[in-house]
Amino acid sequence: MKIITVSREFGSGGREIGKRLADELGFAYYDREIVSAIAEKTSLDEGYIERTLDSSILNQVYPVTFSRTFAFSYHNIANATNLLAKQHQVVRELSQKGDCVIVGRSADALLSDLNPFKLFVYADMQSKIDRCKKRAEEGENFTDKEYKKKIEKIDKARAENHDFVSSYAWGDMKNYDLCINTTNIDIKAIVPKLAEYIKTIY
Amino acid sequence: MKIITVSREFGSGGREIGKRLADELGFAYYDREIVSAIAEKTSLDEGYIERTLDSSILNQVYPVTFSRTFAFSYHNIANATNLLAKQHQVVRELSQKGDCVIVGRSADALLSDLNPFKLFVYADMQSKIDRCKKRAEEGENFTDKEYKKKIEKIDKARAENHDFVSSYAWGDMKNYDLCINTTNIDIKAIVPKLAEYIKTIY
Lengths: 202, 202
Known about the structure:
The structure is a homodimer of 202-residue chains.
Chain A: E1 3-8, H1 14-25, E2 28-30, H2 32-42, H3 46-54, H4 57-61, H5 70-95, E3 100-103, H6 107-110, E4 117-122, H7 125-134, H8 144-164, E5 178-181, H9 187-201
Parallel strand pairs in A: 1-3, 1-4, 2-3, 4-5
Helix pairs in contact in A: 1-9, 2-5, 7-8
C-alpha cells in the first residue's frame, strides 16, 4: 500500500498539488472526506468538527481565559481529544483501502509506521497571500496584513496540532522526503514531474 | 543564463546529485574548479585555500585562544576575508560563462541577484555516516560517533560561512526552491526526474 502525505503551509497550494498528484498517479485522494467520515461516526456537524480540529488543540486544553467554568473547559478538552482520536481512526481506515494521497490531518505522523512518502509544500508570504486573494470568496475583502495574520494563525494551529501527536516538528525539513517551494511555480506543470520523481523512489 | 546551486549537508550525496544533474542537463559543473581558480589568482596552495574556506570564518575572526599574538590573529582574518572575496569573484566569473551547476561555496547567496535555482540536499544522520564510510579512504577507520562529530563540525562551518555572506540561514527550507532528502534513495535513478522537474519551472 502506498501512501503519500501532503503537509503544507496555508496558501501554498499544497491541496492542489495533492489533488493533482492523486489524479496523476491514479491514487485515492482524501481531504474533506476525512471530516465527513468523522461526522458519520460521531453524528456531529462537519463544520463543528473542522473548526475544532483546525483550531489549536493546545488553546483548547489550556484556555487563555479562566472566566468560564472548569466544566466548560473540560468539555472542550474532551471534545477535542475525542475528535483527534476519531481522526486517527478514520485516517488509518482510509489508508488501508488502497494507494492514496492524504492532505493535512497530521497523516504523516499518524501513519508514520506505514512508511508514507512525506511531502511538505511551502511558499513565501507574498505568494501565499496572492493565492488566498485569488481564491477568496465573493465579499471577502481582507488586506494583505489581515491575510498574513490569518495564514500565520492557521499554520500555528497546524504546527501545534501536528506536534501534539508527533515526536517531530511540523515544517522541519528533515522529517519529510521532499520539500517543495511553490513560489512563482506552475503547479499544474510540475505535478507530472513530481509524480515521476516519487514513482522512482517509492 | 541558468544557474543551479546545490547546498548540502556533509555526507548527503549533494555533490553526486550536482555532478549528475550537470551531466543530465548539459550544464558546466563547478566544485573543486573554484578552489583551483582561486589558487591561480592568489598563487596560494589549493589545500591551504580549501582548509581556510572550509573552516568556520567566525572561528578565525574570533579565535578561541588569545595565547598567540594579535598580529597572528589579524593575519588569519585578513587571509580568510581575502579568500572569501576571491571566492565571490571566481564564483561570479564562472557563472557568467554559461549554464552551470555550482556545489557549495555559498553560491546560492553570492549569486542571489542572478536568480539561481536553489537546491538543498539532506539526509538523516545514519545515512550520512554510511555514505561517509563507503567513501572512506583506505586506512580511514572512524567510529560512527567520530563520523557524526565530523559531519556536525563541517556542517556548522558551512552554516557559519554561508550566513557570513547571506541575509538568510543555511539549511532553512524557505530559502531554497527544492529540498531533497536522500535517505535510502537511489541518487542515480532520481536525477533524470529531478532534471525534468527543474526544466519545467526554471
